[in-house]
Amino acid sequence: MCGIVGYIGKRNALPIVIDGLRALEYRGYDSAGVALWDGAKIRFEKAAGRVSALESRLSRKSTLWNGKSAIAHTRWATHGKPSDRNAHPHADCQGGIFVVHNGIIENYAELREALIREGHSFLSETDTEVLAHLFERPFLSSGKIFLEDAVLEGLRHVDGTFGIAVISKHDPEKIVVARRGSPIILGVGDEEYLVASDASAIVGVTKNVVYLHDNEAAVLAPSQMQIFNLSKKAIQKSVDKIDWDISQAQKGGFDHFMQKEIFEGPSALENVFLGRLIDPPTGGGSAKLGGIVAVRDRLLRAKKIIISACGTSYYAGLVGKHYFEEFAKIPASVEYASEFRYSNPVIDSDTAAIFISQSGETADTLEALREAKKRGALALGIVNVVGSTIARESDAGVYNHAGPEIGVASTKAFVSQLGALALLALFLGRERGAVSDVLGQKLVRELKAMPAKMKRVLSGDAEIKKLAEKYLKYKNFLYLGRKYQFPVALEGALKLKEISYRHAEGYASGEMKHGPIALIDENFPTVALAPKDPVYEKILSNIQEIKARNGRVLAVATEGDAKIGKLADDVIFIPQTLEMLTPLLSVIPLQLFAYHTAVLLGLDVDKPRNLAKSVTVE
Ligand code: M6R
Asked: According to the UniProt entry, what is the EC number of this protein (predicted)?
């Protein structure tokens, strides 16, 4: 939520931070702002709306905006409505200190009252503004003080989460950065440094990065960078290399990131399998997972698995539960991370807790992970973003290597999460003796065949677009699936509602007759997931029941299924595969259906209203 970016070095900072904002816009897009030190004074500009609104304001004055350091922000409102006034950066009373912030200052109301009593005046309704006034305090009392000392002193009073970048005319040749709970990455260029909420804002300038951890701060100056903890004790950190390219974070000829990322599903799956599938000519197939070698024995001793995540990652977890129970014969359960952490979970050192997150920064998932570790569980992460907080705080894990996912609606990450879960289940199943040589080989063979099968489904895009046109008039949808298809139904409904704002309910098909069937009439269509699997006949009965009540049915079924065409109004066919792998195929038409619906409705699919890509607040 919210993106921050800053640059200090030898180049003009403005175009660099504006590019950075564009890259970060998926994190929040209700207002944006920038502050720049031009060598004599700090200039700032803010605008409600997209980054483009800020740019058009700046374009009128850009000749004056020349400076070697700047900070900028794109906002997802928490405290105070989206407006020019509430946009970041926020300043102190004298306009001498400017702050951009991602996170929530939980005790801001008390701090604000105390600061007002001291004589500070506030311009915005945000929690962030208290930071600027807290950082102003030491300058008021002692005059000559380093900006980093003022920032560290101010942060001592703060409860909550922050990723901040600060500049000041009192100590101008630097950017001060600090983090607790909100992601911060530093870029190390040639006599230039950057700070950002994530690598997408940095990778255009440099691939060399340093991950700032919680309770760490940094001073970035044109020719040096110092890192320390919040008590100013120096810390040495290694410089890592980003392993992806700027082109991966661009649309590459597609109209939208979401569209591009749906079409990247097969390569995302190839990447998660790369070097990890063992397919010996003799003996059983298995999976090789370098990220869990260090905890292998502990993992094999686990008596149960608990999976925790949010949103799409949670639905991937629901598929994973079946994988672990069916193939590794180990009891598994799935919990929303936001519920798990407050549920007093019964877990101990015999539990393997798996946390799934594309961003690796989701606040609820991170706190659930911390809770599980506190209770002694082995914490494993299935994470896409390398170096993210969840990846770092997990005891071990599997990166899904899907590459950057920019569209707010998660698509290729889901597919690669299923790939990672399948690998982990296969590994556990083999090691625990639950998967035979023959089954192991069969699974590996079919996993390898999946990217090509996914491409076949994607080749039906034009047909799916026609179906989206046909169903465009409907405002409500029911998505039904059983067993492996139930999570897909939930995911399909989530995709539709988050980008097209159509009401959609995902339901376990067996539950339909316990309530939702009352909704069905000719205006309430059902998307029925009906691949040829062991529960196929059951979903056929559900379709009959819907047809008997004049409901329309759009089915997803297996190629060669002659029966379903006689029942459903429309059918999208997917190739035959093993039951466990059907979600990898059946989810694609649902992603495309949601995508085309939103485009046809003229909506911004990559930046749907009220949402942000990475939910770093509770
Ligand atoms: O980054 P994460 O996987 O932890 O994010 C979890 C959810 O916020 C995310 O999946 C969200 O539901 C997406 N908008 C779904 O498309």
From this structure: 2.6.1.16
Q: Which atom of ligand 1 is nearest to the CA of 615?
A: 8
Domain ranges of the chain: 3-249, 257-457, 461-600
Instruction: Kindly state if the Cβ of 310 falls inside 6 Å of ligand 1.
Output: yes
Nearest CA to ligand 1 atom 14: 409
Number of other CB atoms surrounding residue 277 within 10 Å: 19
Would the CB of 358 count as within 6 Å of ligand 1?
Answer: yes
Are residues 29 and 610 in contact, defined by beta-carbon separation less than 8 angstroms?
A: no
pLDDT tens for 374-428 read: 999 999 999 998 888 899 999 999 999 898 898 999 999 999 999 999 999 999 9
- Say which amino acid occupies 465: K
Question: Which H helix or E strand runs over 257?
Answer: helix 257-263
**Is the predicted pLDDT of residue 19 greater than 80, yes or no?**
yes
* Minimal-distance CA residue to ligand 1 atom 7: 311
| Rounded CA separation 126/123 (Å) | 9
Instruction: Show the beta-strand stretches assigned E in 198-274.
Output: 208-212, 216-221, 224-229, 240-241
- Enzyme catalytic residues: 2, 613
Check if 198 has its Cβ closer than 6 Å to any atom of ligand 1. Answer: no
Measured CA distances, 549 to 89, 402, 556, 572, 590 (Å): 56, 42, 20, 22, 24
Sign of CA dihedral 202, 216, 385, 242: positive
The CATH number fitting domain 257-457, selected from 3.40.630.30, 3.40.50.1400, 3.40.50.10490, 3.60.21.10: 3.40.50.10490
Q: How far is the CA of 313 from the centre of ligand 1 (A)?
A: 6
Where does the pLDDT of residue 612 fall: very low under 50, low under 70, confident under 90, or very high at 90 and above? confident
CA 611 to centroid of ligand 1, rounded, Å: 10
Q: Are 182 and 205 in contact (CB under 8 A)?
A: no
Give the ligand 1 atom nearest the CA of 390: 4
Query: Average pLDDT of 497-518?
Result: 94
Same CATH topology for 257-457 and 461-600? yes
Give the distance, in angstroms, between the CA of residue 467 and the centroid of all CA atoms in the same chain: 29
Ligand 1, closest atom to CA 312? Answer: 10
